[in-house]
Each structure stands twice: as C-alpha cells, then as structure tokens.
Amino acid sequence: MLSLGGEPGKLVLDLMDQYPDDDLLLVDSVRDQLVITKPGLLADLFVNRPYDFMKPPGAASFLKETLGLGLVTAEGEQHKFLRKNSLPAFGFRHIKDLYPMMWRKSYCFTESLLSKRNAPKNAQDSDETIDIGIASSKVTLDIIGIAGLGREFDAIHNSDDPLAQAYEELTTPSFGRSVYFVMCSLFGIRFVQRLPWNENKVLKRLKSSIMSTCLTMLLEKREAIKKNEADHIDILSLLIKSNNFSNSELTDQLMTFMAAGHETTSSSLSWACYLLTKHPDILSTVREEVQRELAVDASGIPSVDIASALERLPYLNGVINETFRLYPTVPLTQRVAVRDTQIGQYRIPKGANFIVSIWAMSRSSLVWGSDSTKFRPDRWITNDKPNYTGGASSNYQFLTFLHGPRSCIGQGFARAEMRCLLAAMVLSYDWELAMPESDVVPGGTVTIKPAKGLLLRLRPVHNL
Ligand code: HEM
C-alpha cells in the first residue's frame, strides 16, 4: 500500500473507483489493514477520537530516527503536553509578526536567483535555469532558522551550509530510501538497523549531524537568553522560557520543527511553480493582482501591511490552495487503533490499521467532482474573495494539513511563507519548464517533491 514510486495514491484512487459505494475497505485481512475512502468517516479518526489511534510503531520508528521524539512522533499524554506547550508559538498574532521577515527573505531569494550565474549587466535580458526545489529549500531553511531559533543561516548565499546539505540529502527521493521506509514499517527500525545496508550508515550520519547541530544551537540559545542578549521571540526561545522541557526534549523538538518546517513548504512552492508553467494565463493574473495590491518599490518594500494584503488576494491564495490540494506534500498518513473503538457506524478492534490517502482524497472525482484533477484556483474564490473550502461540502475533503489535535501545527506558518514566496516569485519572474514534462513526477519517502527536481527557465519581469 505504501508507494515505491509512481503516483503516491494511485492504488487507493483505483480502489475508490472500483468500490464507489463503500467507505471502509479491508485491503489486508492478515494485518487488519483498512483504507478509509469517504471523508465522512474521518471526523472520528482525527477529531472525535484522535487518541484512540496512534501512528504505527514501524513508520514512527523511522521518523524518530530523523525527527527525534518531538511533536510528530510523540503519542498520548506526551503528545498532548508537547502540543499544548508548542501552540503559542504558532498563534495567529505570532505568524502575522513573522510576515515582514518572510517577505524580506523571499525577496532576497528571488534576487539571489538572478545573481546566481554570471548574469550580464542588463540582467533583464538573461535567462536563468534553476532547480527551484533546491534553491527554495535554502530560503525556507533561512526562514525557519529565524522563526524557529532566531538564527540567521543565510543558506541562500551559503550553499555549503552543513544543515542545508544534511536535509537535502535526507529528503532527496530515492528508491533505496523508500524501500528502507517500507521495511521499517513492516519490521521496525531495530530489525532493519541490524541488516548490512549502507542506508543505515547514511541515516546514522545524517541524524548525528542534524542532532549535534541542533544541540549546539540550543545550548547557545540558552546562554543568550541567560545573558538576555536580545529579545527572544523565536519558537525555541518560547519553549525554553516555558521551563517545561529538558535539553534532550528541546533538541528533539527543534529537530522536528527544522525538518517538518522547511522541505514541506519548499516542495509546495515547486509544485505551484510547476502548475503555473502549465497555466501561463493564471501566472499573469496572479502577477497583476500582486503588482496592483502590494505596490512594491524598487528595493522590494511593499507600501502596505504585507500580511493583510497577501491574505486577501483571491488568485494568489487560490493558486496556493489548489497546489496544496493537488500536491499534498504529505500524501498519506496511517493510524493504528490503540483500544477497541468506533469509526462512524463501524466497531473497530484494537490493533486495526488505517491508511488515509490524502493524495487520493484530494484528487478523487467521487469527492471533488468530474474536474477533480484540474488545476482550478477559482474554486477557492467566492465574490472576488478567497474562500477556505474550495467549494467542498465537508472539511474532510481537504486533508493536506489534516484536522484535529494531530493536524499540522505549522499550517498558518506554511501558508504565510507560501504567500510571501510565491508573490515574490511572480513579481520577479516569468518562467517555463526547462525539462521534459514527463520527467516531472512526484517521489519521496514520507513527503513528496518532484523526484527529478524541477528545472525552470526564468526570465526577469520588468516591473520592479
Ligand atoms: C506545505 C507545508 C506543510 C504541509 C503540507 C504539512 C503537512 C502536515 C501533515 C499532513 C501533518 C500530519 C502528519 C500525520 O499525522 O501523519 C503535519 C504535522 C506536523 N507539521 Fe506540518 N506541514 C507543512 C508545513 C509545516 C511547517 C512549516 C511546520 C513548522 C514550522 C510544520 C510542523 C508540523 C508538526 C510539528 C507536525 C506534527 C503535529 C502533531 O502531531 O501535533 N509543518 N504536517
């Protein structure tokens, strides 16, 4: 059921077409493996009884190796505690305050793309071919660096940054890594780690490099807070100041936020750019909208409050929501029942395993109608204003960030970041695909991105 290449939710989509009237399909009777195919049943899984379920130990053991025992991997009471103490750092007000920094970084990012190669003096005549995924993961690392721990990595300009390199290596899609993940899911990581497999060495090296960098940054941050060197409002400082966490818990939390918080958004930016290569008319519409509403000056400073301006743009938000729908960075999630429980009218025995294909739910014509796979940002617009349903009749049709206490805590952060990055991109460039369309395929282990990269040919726009 876990994808080893190809479209991540294809099998579930096929099952949904084959059994359109069923909402729960038993796909593996040996391991009680169930697939939920109707949004209506998800309220019990995610919102009404979320702690009757946990992430399957095998898959979680893989995640713990790379993310630590933080919010993504904790369960039960420990999860409730971490979530409660992390929420203030992701509040609405705090995200609003981060917009100017996100905008500044996004603008620097687009400028860095221009100067990447030996651009001629009259750069407007130059063409740049870049892999937008690799380039944008640097700026998202810079943004989470500042927001997450008040630290300037400047990975945009410093391509040798070890943390950026470690994350790139960790998330680059490969068949071997996918097989490794499936093996961990089936047999647990302790068993897989005993196999003579090079992947074990690679993951150990990456984990130890990320962990030691996070620990060093944590200790420096503690010192800085003690000396009261600056006004510390980043996520890590808020967690330290809450006095609720030990150093090892904080290191795990930091590893989680750094990993969960940057590759996800940079992949989404890649997919948005890809979709816009296929819809140049929509790219022009978004650009006109951003030019008109932000009125950015020659040095990239907007004349209006950036947060409120970006949040009300219908097309910019429509493109972002439609990208999140068609290319959910986390394409699948799994749960196992930790006690006898209930989902809808079904009695569920302890130990039953569930697969929710976020990808399939986002693309199924049974759920979204006959144009379900079409890129239609206008489904997210009502009376010239953004709507947040996409015309769906149930919340559970849109699962990109899930729902309930295990939903993505960084959703507001990711949306703010995407608005800044995409707005800065459309203001600065026109672009087209610089690789065969057939090579643009999703791939990855837990999160997906364009498996062969996304090469774009950029042309500077003459408007700034
Ligand atoms: C487009 C960007 C993003 C997408 C699509 C996304 C998606 C998701 C999804 C689907 C989950 C639930 C995973 C599961 O239960 O299997 C999740 C959890 C999580 N995400 Fe995100 N995420 C994004 C960005 C971010 C950002 C920017 C941050 C942090 C700054 C973040 C931090 C987290 C954390 C900590 C969790 C675990 C929450 C919990 O279990 O309480 N994510 N994300």
From TrEMBL:
Q: Give the matching SUPFAM superfamilies.
A: Cytochrome P450
InterPro entries assigned: Cyt_P450, Cyt_P450_E_grp-I, Cyt_P450_sf, Cytochrome_P450_monoxygenase
What is a single molecular function from GO for this protein?
Answer: oxidoreductase activity, acting on paired donors, with incorporation or reduction of molecular oxygen
- Specify the superkingdom: Eukaryota
Identify which cofactors the protein needs according to its UniProt entry.
heme
Question: Electron transport: present as a keyword of the record?
Answer: no
The protein's UniProt keywords, in alphabetical order, are:
Heme, Iron, Metal-binding
Binding locations of heme = C408
Keyword check for Cell cycle: no
PANTHER family xrefs:
CYTOCHROME P450, CYTOCHROME P450 12A4, MITOCHONDRIAL-RELATED
Q: Which family does it belong to?
A: Belongs to the cytochrome P450 family.
**What's the protein here called?**
Cytochrome P450
The scientific name of the source species is Xylaria flabelliformis
